[in-house]
Amino acid sequence: MGTASRRAAIRLLDAVLRRGEPLEAALASATRALPGGPDRGLAHAIAAETLRRLPDLDALIDSATKQRLPDDAKARFALRIALVQVLALGTPPHAAISTVLPLVDGGPRKLVHGVFSTITKSGVLLPEIPALPDATEARWEENWGEEMVEAAAHAIAAPPPLDLTLADSSATQEWAEKLGGVSLLPGHVRLPSGSAVMELQGFDEGAWWVQDLAASIPARLLGEGRGHVLDLCAAPGGKTLQLAAAGWTVTAIDQSESRLARLSENLERTNQSAEVVTADLREWAPKEPVDAILVDAPCSASGIFRRHPDVLYRVRPAIIAEMAELQRVILTRAADWLKPGGTLVYATCSLEPEEGENQIAAFLDQRPDYALVPITGVWPGITDKGTIRTLPTMLAKEGRLDGFFIAMLQRKG
Ligand SMILES: C[S@@+](CC[C@H](N)C(=O)[O-])C[C@H]1O[C@@H](n2cnc3c(N)ncnc32)[C@H](O)[C@@H]1O
């Protein structure tokens, strides 16, 4: 695995940092020329780790250059990926630089080699706790305070654990023991990061599926099946599986065919069933009102920055406003589809109040036919208002949580 993987890693970084694309979305086109899975995996790992450590890598590069390299300079990209391999991924310096230098042939090769050698020979290390990008740090500090920013930085340093949701929560202890994990809620098992999912006991028989603990809360709030539920924005289906396993008659709707294909595979593997509909929720409507609705709205995804470090760079006020508007449209339409007395759960994996707290406050102002149902129980992150706000500060010793906002609403009867 050589220069081609490194070239693809730079393409991925360029897609995220210059074009604002999600890392996962850029993967297929940036790695198309690579021969196999391991090469693609390497390109992805280098790009993701670079994004986790970008401010620290740039500070090192700046400390070793007389004139600051522009942010989009080829030399800076080459140095970032060469250095991250040595300082974070354990690649020997010779292998890291020899596979990166061909990428700057006919250009700043000498500069890249010189700066790389100065830094790696100095014995300097990356700080134990990564720095956050300035704009993200400022936004999160304003919204959640210094402690949250510190926790977020710690969260980036350690790869997140693997959370599983069990199809049968009465077997929680049994599965925790079988898999060697710990359970933090009934129906949940947490394993160390890096566990090979498909090799774990129970994968083939569909006894569980991968789902962050915070992400598992919205469907849990709807409880045992009491009729027909619309799972809006359903793919790849973690919440669909939970609802089906709880006995609901589920209609799962999403606009992405490729993500719905994964949802159908997941249903098959876990032996659950749901009606699957490919549709844009700005246009689709059900034939009749339903008993419950789960809106797992599309969002900036800033709450899942541990697994998707590109959000640290892509999520800006304009993106947040655009997603908040889409959420508003979907939520407002969905609100007309619920029977009086029915329950609607709204969730976003976002750390931006515009996509959570503010969205629901504005909705309740507009819809006197809806009331907030204060959430009670064992869930982490219950606020004074009775909504849930999970933050990376929570369950710090147990491996932390993704950032989620969840509200439960009832249509007045
Ligand atoms: C947060 S993800 C859903 C995760 C899913 N609920 C789960 O638990 O696995 C948001 C989803 O919204 C879908 N989406 C975005 N805009 C949409 C729209 N206008 N209509 C329907 N689905 C949409 C995306 O394709 C994406 O799958």
UniProtKB/TrEMBL annotation:
Active-site residues, Swiss-Prot/TrEMBL: 349
The keyword S-adenosyl-L-methionine belongs to this UniProt entry's keyword annotation: yes
Protein name: Methyltransferase domain-containing protein
Coiled-coil blocks: 253-280
PROSITE patterns: NOL1_NOP2_SUN (PS01153), SAM_MT_RSMB_NOP (PS51686)
Gene3D superfamilies registered for this protein in UniProt: NusB-like (1.10.940.10), Vaccinia Virus protein VP39 (3.40.50.150)
Record GO biological process: regulation of DNA-templated transcription; RNA methylation
GO molecular function (one): RNA methyltransferase activity
Domain SAM-dependent MTase RsmB/NOP-type: 124-412
